[in-house]
Amino acid sequence: MIFLLISKKQLLHNFSYKTKYLIIEMSPISVSMTDEKIMTGISKGNPDGVKILYERYHVKIYNFFLRMTFNREVSLDLMQNVFYRLIKYRKSWKENHAFIPWIFRICKNEYNDYMKKEGRFLNNSVDLEEINESSAGIITDPARSDQVKNLHNALARISPEHRKILLLSKYMKLKNREIAVILESNENAVKGMIFRAMCKLRKVYFKLDKT
Amino acid sequence: MDCKDYAELIKDYVTGDISSTNLEKLKAHLIDCDECRDEYMQMEEINKSFDLLPDLKLKGITDIFQNGYLKQALTIESKYLNFNYISKKILIPAGIAASIILFMSGFFAGRIQKENHLKDQEIAALRIEVNETKNLMILSLLKQQSASKRIQAASYAEKLDELRPEVMDALLYSLNTDNSVNVRLASLEALSKYTDNPVIRTELVKSFDQEVDPIIQVNMINLMILLNEKSSAYIMQRLVEDVNTQSLVKDQARKGLKILL
Lengths: 211, 261
Description:
The complex is a heterodimer.
Chain A: H1 2-16, H2 18-26, H3 35-43, H4 49-69, H5 72-88, H6 99-118, H7 128-138, H8 142-157, H9 160-171, H10 176-182, H11 187-210
Helix pairs in contact in A: 3-4, 4-5, 5-6, 6-10, 7-8, 8-11, 9-11, 10-11
Chain B: H1 3-14, H2 20-32, H3 34-52, H4 64-67, H5 69-142, H6 147-158, H7 165-177, H8 181-192, H9 198-210, H10 214-227, H11 233-241, H12 247-260
């Protein structure tokens, strides 16, 4: 009897968005689909899309956390947690939103939660040297790899808030408008924040450059 | 415009929000102003450094969906996901199918029960038929020449569900008239099983009255005592008083009188 009641309820629910649902069902998740369409599919209960979004973004997100923490182990955890949250909070996805600001908002929240929980005990920048070496292995030009090393060292020395906004703007190449969405702020404030962070970074960067 | 205004343009450049005309103006100013040029050049170098930042590969884990922590998380959440997905695709049709099956099975169960009921009726009809056949068989057996066949008929008569009137008549007839004492005894025994029937009782008393054979008389007396048949007392009285009655029968009749009266 209970079973019948449940199925009746679900049946009604099913009918209410049957048309939308059919479109998703008829077009299987494919590599050519936009992030937003895939995410809509996930939010409607098709888990196949998670892997595609993971393939598209996990390296960028991992590298974002890597430059936030300079700790490989923590970055890996945070990156995986982001995708876990993506699945967990799939219902909060709105079809007319853009995917990238949405996922980076998750990244930001994940990082903040992590800092609240473990920040005091975080062994700062444990893998900084290793990350510099790995980067030098990818960039063959020694002058350029020095530049990257300098940037890493400078980033490790400024505050997480400054680091975050610079990474979003300069490394992730997000627009100020998108960053405003992520940080729940407005464009002008974001511009101010980027400039202040850049000034701070510039000081540290060129101090290190001289030594 | 002074350096303060150009500082604003540098800010626009840093935040990636500068128009091409403003950039031209800024660059023209940089030729003359060392301070602004330094700032601009440094910002440009940092921007370029950011462009050089490589995407590093994950260490340790090759496929997170195969052996990583995310796999566990996904499997836990996938249950919900798959449930939602599956429930829409499979569970609802399955639920409908299940309810149909439930309904059908109930329907067929009812039918089978009804059939069983019919079978019960058939069995009852068969029993009646068998009973009738037995009655007929008894009748035909009682007419047989052989005494043993007639005894057999009488013993069959004991086991009947229902004694048919014609069989009853036949048994009474053989009780009263049969040549063989054994057959008459068997008939008496058979009839004694149906003494609930008042007709048989009165008939038995009648034949007791006419009886002359001592063995039958003793059996009759015993039966009357068993049935507590008071109407047979006068017969016993007569037997006791009769000079010709055998002593064994007389003793039995006295016993019977004591108990009945």
